[in-house]
Amino acid sequence: MLEPKKKYGELAPSERILLGAGPSGVDPRVLRVMSTPLLGHLDPEFIEIMDDTGDLLRYVFQTENTMTLPMSGTGSAGMDTVLSNLLEPGDKAIVAFCGVFGERMIDIAQRTGAEVKVVSGDWGRIIEAEQIEAAFKEMPDAKLLAFVHAETSTGIMQPVDDIVRIAHEHGALVAMDCVTSLGGAPVWLDKWGIDAAYSGTQKCISCPPGLSPISMNARAQKALNSRKTAVPSWYLDLTMIERYWGKERFYHHTAPISMAYALREALRIIAEEGLEARWARHEKNAQAFTAGCKAMGLEPFAQEGYRLPSLITLKVPANVDDAAARKHLLQKFNIEISGGLGPVKGQIWRVGLMGSNSTSKNVFLALTALASALNAQGFKASASAALEAATAVYDA
Amino acid sequence: MLEPKKKYGELAPSERILLGAGPSGVDPRVLRVMSTPLLGHLDPEFIEIMDDTGDLLRYVFQTENTMTLPMSGTGSAGMDTVLSNLLEPGDKAIVAFCGVFGERMIDIAQRTGAEVKVVSGDWGRIIEAEQIEAAFKEMPDAKLLAFVHAETSTGIMQPVDDIVRIAHEHGALVAMDCVTSLGGAPVWLDKWGIDAAYSGTQKCISCPPGLSPISMNARAQKALNSRKTAVPSWYLDLTMIERYWGKERFYHHTAPISMAYALREALRIIAEEGLEARWARHEKNAQAFTAGCKAMGLEPFAQEGYRLPSLITLKVPANVDDAAARKHLLQKFNIEISGGLGPVKGQIWRVGLMGSNSTSKNVFLALTALASALNAQGFKASASAALEAATAVYDA
Predict the structure, then answer these.
(1) Residue A278 has pLDDT above 90, yes or no
(2) Residue of chain B whose alpha carbon sits nearest to that of A188
């Protein structure tokens, strides 16, 4: 008999303030419902919870799509689901790429066996509509255009209208990653004409990671149902999953009950606040934080005019050590922010003000802590100037 | 603006006693830790939680396999992971099938592009070693033998030794489904020579559904690393996931933090009780329940000598309506038991006594409730005879 290696102590993590790229902090109401004893996944009462969740997701996505449900995996499971359900060998796809999550889309699209055309942009900048236009000239029979609305690795919010129009003019479907925007910035699935979208629960929805809300319209569903081959992953096969979430209630896999409780509660909180009020709150706090950062000498990384309100990216100043500064924040303030990924590793910080964490309190706290971390490394940052600039935004 | 359809009320589900095929009831300690505020998925404290969880999973699987981790999905995600990581086009596999979960394995194995040979058995009976021997005669170059240790759809516990020996004599890897046995019945990964296994958290581990513990030995890892093609699902690609769980801590996807808290706590509870004591408890309660059922005139469905201690299957008596009886249990007693799937739909009941739900209290309660449901339909079942027979098992 192999015995346990040691005595494992009680779970007692430090109380972090999660101001990184996600997961974000979670409302106590959401944490609390997860302690609710379980229902079975086919219990009539659980079916009602599924129905409520579908309704509330349609509200948050601003869609009437019947196929709107949370996949039983984290945000990346949603990306995998949407692309691997809509693409198969023989298909062609255009993927816009200017950050880690666009890069991941390319990887996933290629695994489906589809021919993939990549439209590359600079990290920290948007993809221009002309680039999409040019890609469709070279690949006019692309079945799908995939792009990232909110690029978590750069802090960019991609304009949608033109690229959707171009894709539709060429008869292509449009798939959108809104992991870091859903619930924190305007997302209008139906108004924008997005055919398929996916998100995560752990960003602006302020629910723990573990589910990935997705939505597909009738056009995307038609493409799904016209596949010639089976979806490669049984677990992510929407043709089967829709039979559990639809009227049929056909057993596919055991739904993550406690996470479903959490998501429903998080969505209820969003409905109580109202989407537009929530978007405005995110916008205001992002402006205040950015003003404060500028006042202490920090420079935004993401292209002006296209900055996410949920995730603010900043350039790490010359002569400041990224890792040391983040360690300072974690150890002295219990604040987590994120560093850069890939080509901007060590060069940018990513500060999330997402969902219930997007508050003036956190803005002031993050500014104070950042000033402290900078000063500790000899970069003279004035906390009072930062707080004053932020206050001015709130007072305006 | 699309508005929410209605006011969604506070979550207040009925207090069910989950004695079905899963999810099972969860220890209050496990429910409680899920309310713990989140750590980030790369936080040093979360890394420690991952390390603890890996250690404790190795204990529960009775293995020293380095690659032992919870996949971020439910039990079926584990099945999909193991098969789609070990098989690719050009490979050959033998899959043993005598229930829904064996059937699912066939579906998944076929999606990988591998040639699949099916060994069929009767529902409610084991697969005989001779059948496996015969299959390897016809497909001597099979790369993998996949079988279900604990068939949740029939209540059968498959003997392991002979079929593993046969597979290894032919140089094949062995993949085992132990979703319904892990933590409730003897599972000896290393002693049995199992090369890859997967399970779920929502059965005998008594943790909510949402994670799928898997384990692979060096032989299986070697096969994984010798693939010619990419794993079709990015989300389930172990070549990437092992880099997050391994020393490298390379970011793959955001781990489901709250579920990781829950799993660690559920595993701690198992370590405190001790695996062998836990197996004995499941065995004793299953015997008592089965004795009680027989005493009131119910007949076990699964083959004698090969019955799971965690899931007891019973034949629905002639002239008794399956659905009406289960409705009676749910409405009068708040008890969930499961009906049959596929060819035994309407013909069997599946009663789970799993993890923290495997107690003498639940045995007595389930017997009383079953007697009530049967009597309501005119089937004369003596609750007192049942309770007496169960008591005799405990007193022996």
Answers:
(1) yes
(2) B1
Q: CB-based contacts of B95: which residues, under 8 Å, 6+ apart? A: B102, B105, B106, B109, B116, B117, B118, B119, B145, B146, B147
One domain, residues B179 and B284: no
Q: What is the largest CA-CA distance in chain B?
A: 68
**Three-state DSSP class for residue B61:** helix
CA-based nearest residue to A235, from B163, B184, B81, B304: B81
pTM score = 0.97
- Over pLDDT 90: what percentage of chain B? 95
Do residues B295 and B386 both lie within one domain?
Answer: yes
Does residue A84 lie within any of the structural domains? yes
Which residues in chain A are contacts of B79 at CB distance < 8 A?
Answer: 234-235
- Indicate the residue of B34, B41, B234 with minimum beta-carbon distance to A111: B234
Question: Measured between beta carbons, which residues in chain A are less than 8 angstroms from residue B186?
Answer: none
Same domain as A290, residue A155: no
ipTM, 2 dp: 0.96
Question: Residue B326 maps to which CATH number?
Answer: 3.90.1150.10
Q: pLDDT for B161-214, tens place per residue?
A: 999 999 999 999 999 999 999 999 999 999 999 999 999 999 999 999 999 999
Ramachandran region, residue B239 (left: φ > 0; alpha: ψ -120 to 50; beta: rest) = alpha
Contact yes or no for B381/B374 (Cβ under 8 A): yes
Structure token digits, residue A238: 């929407």
Q: Any idea which residue has 């101001």 for tokens?
A: A19
Instruction: Express each pLDDT in A42-76 by its tens digit.
Output: 999 999 999 999 999 999 999 999 999 999 999 99
* Torsion angle of the four alpha carbons A239, B209, B248, A24, in this order, in degrees rounded to the nearest 10: 90
Contacts of A6 in chain B (CB under 8 A): 55
Alpha helices in chain B (DSSP H): 28-33, 44-61, 75-86, 100-111, 129-138, 161-169, 189-192, 218-225, 238-245, 257-273, 275-295, 322-333, 360-376, 383-395
pLDDT for residue B160:
98
Residue type, A149: H
Domain C-terminal end among A271, A293, A309: A271
| A288: nearest Cα among A322, A314, A315, A312 | A312
Q: Is the domain of B49 the same as that of B188? A: yes
Closest CA to A37 of B11, B342, B380: B11
Q: Could you give the number of structural domains in chain B?
A: 2
Which structural domain range is residue A57 located in?
A: 28-271
